[in-house]
Amino acid sequence: MPSESAYSAEPFVPRRGGLPALRRAAAECRGCPLHLDATQTVFGDGKADARVMLVGEQPGDQEDRQGKPFVGPAGKLLDRALAEAGIDPGDAYVTNAVKHFKFTRAEPRKRRIHKAPTLREMTACGPWLAAELAVVEPELIVVLGATAGKALLGSAFRVTQERGTVLEREIHGRKERLVATVHPSSVLRSDDREAAYQGLVSDLRVAARVLDS
Ligand code: URA
Ligand code: SF4
User: Fold this and answer.
1) Domain housing 70
2) Residue 125 C-alpha to ligand 2 middle, in angstroms?
3) What is the CATH number of the domain that holds 52?
4) pTM, entire model
5) Distance between CA 158 and CA 163 in Å, rounded?
6) How far is ligand 2, taken at its centre, from the CA of residue 31, in Å?
7) What span, in angstroms and rounded, lies between the C-alpha atoms of 48 and 82?
């Protein structure tokens, strides 16, 4: 049992019932304080038999409003990059390391500004990602950015060092294949967007080759 002070989604995760049961239960998660200010839980989206799982950081403003991952600007860019790399979105299960939107406001009633989750929040939310992996059993995990990388591969993970190559690691007792790349939001923030975008597509092509082999 976790100690009373530890944040964790674990007590909320059902042991059976597949993705529908997980999604229903995650909507009620109080495993860490992030549920307090967010609109709703944004659980993963896609089929249980998806061949590839894409893991992002946390929902953004649009995702928080709509209740689905990667439906905002970063998601639009990701969809375009996936299509260009030859990965069918229908083959993909899309989720995030953290399931609630974390944000600050410069002033009351002003735009909500994304704030990176802490290691504690990522760890608290980890049981949901572990449960998704156990149900979907993807052939490949695409790690989108540093937060997803740290959540799946540990805090020493560096995207710049690991991107674009096929990694094999044991995660939650299962041997997983992973390809890491930058977060699509980082492409939108980049000074050289076109180069950053081509880098993302090139990493996703490595993932596409794994799925084709
Ligand atoms: N960024 C993410 O990491 N995930 C989303 O769902 C949207 C933006
Ligand atoms: Fe639960 Fe994760 Fe939301 Fe925290 S961020 S309340 S652990 S679903």
Assistant:
1) 4-212
2) 5
3) 3.40.470.10
4) 0.96
5) 8
6) 5
7) 19
Cα separation, 188 vs 173, in Å, equals: 35
Establish how many alpha carbons lie within 13 A of residue 185's alpha carbon, considering only the half-sphere containing its beta carbon. 16
Position in ligand 2 atom list of the atom nearest CA 29: 1
**Positive/negative CA dihedral, 173, 116, 13, 72:** negative
pLDDT averaged over every residue in the chain: 95
Query: Which is the closest atom of ligand 1 to the Cα of 62?
Result: 7
60 CB within 6 A, ligand 1:
yes
pLDDT in tens, 37-89: 999 999 999 999 999 999 999 999 999 999 999 999 999 999 999 999 999 98
Map tokens 């084709």 to a residue. Answer: 212
Ligand 2 centroid to Cα of residue 28, in Å, is 9
How many independent structural domains does the chain possess? 1
Q: What is the DSSP annotation of 117-177?
A: PPHHHHHHHHHHHHHHHHHH--SEEEEESHHHHHHHH-TT--HHHHBTSEEEEEETTEEEE
CA of 26 to the centre of ligand 2 (A): 8
Does residue 58 line the site of ligand 1, with CB under 6 A?
yes
Structure tokens at 33: 């304080």
Write out the two tokens for 8: 């964790």
